[in-house]
Sugar ABC transporter substrate-binding protein
Amino acid sequence: MSTRSARTLIIAGLSVLALAACTSNTPEAEENTGGNAAPQGAAAGKNDEPGQKVRIGFSAPAADHGWMGAITKATQAEAKKYPDIELIVAEGTNDVSLQISQVETFINQKVDAIVLLPFDGAALTPVAVKAMEAGITVVNVDREFDSPFAARTTILGDNYGMGRSAGTYVCQQLEGKANSVVAEIAGIDSLPLTQDRSRGFKEALADCGLKVSNRVAAEFTVESGERAAANLLQAAPKIDAIWNHDDDQGVGVMAAIKNSGRKEFFVVGGAGSANVMRDIKAGNSLLKATVIYPSTQGADGVRLARLLVQKKALADLVEVEVPRTIQLYAPVVTKDNVDQYLPTAFES
């Protein structure tokens, strides 16, 4: 691993430690021993104790693929763990106007907080600002708003980090093979998240003297994944490694590969679906790894919204307020560590 790659992974690791703080506030964590005392309720071990009732509105896009469905499911499950949370879930929608209307309804209901994964961050920015101006705590999930005034805290996956992690893994597997052919099956090319993933992948490969020799784009669906992979396999008579951005579209990718009968390469997935992890664990597939894009972001948003409304902090940090931005880590899952990640994986 190059110095630059190592530095990137270390920085990403610090981010995930920050997140772990909001998900590990157990009584055993540590005791408040005096000195610079934390705010009321923020002492370690206190955060999970019942506090004031918190009404949280949650809105996300339609669950039209496994990852998005897992976001909503995990959010609802997390809210049920806390007797002081009342979660109001709006129906998932890819209609921007309808999602804006949902947030307007939350404002009229005078909820304490809104956890919002916008279908379009820019389009939902004005109504999120309106909610904040109404005194409602907004937690922005995954797709960023255009204004820093639209949310108190933002929880992000690491799309660039996904590409870096995938590229670093490919470099490790192809070490010493300077003429290796690396292919990439991206998601929707017009999306910034796809562009970030591709940029991270390209830069990680450059660190070890490799490049993307063949690239196609799909649309995060099974059907588009199968079409894109079939086109790639037809255009590239030799491939050593493929990185597929998304495990949902990867169902189609793997179908196209099976139909081709080709086996000279290995495949790295993206997002971290349970079916891919099971294939990795079984060891009888071309799938050797996948890069996590957490489907826990909405659940983490609910936890943070509760802490913010109850004026608590992350008990494992010295900082006395919840951070403005938390970026989740993008680890590589292999046969060696798959059991660690399977419990929170989503079904494609």
Remarks:
- The chain has two domains: 3-157+296-328, 159-292.
- DSSP finds eleven helices and twelve strands in the chain.
- The chain has a mean pLDDT of 88.
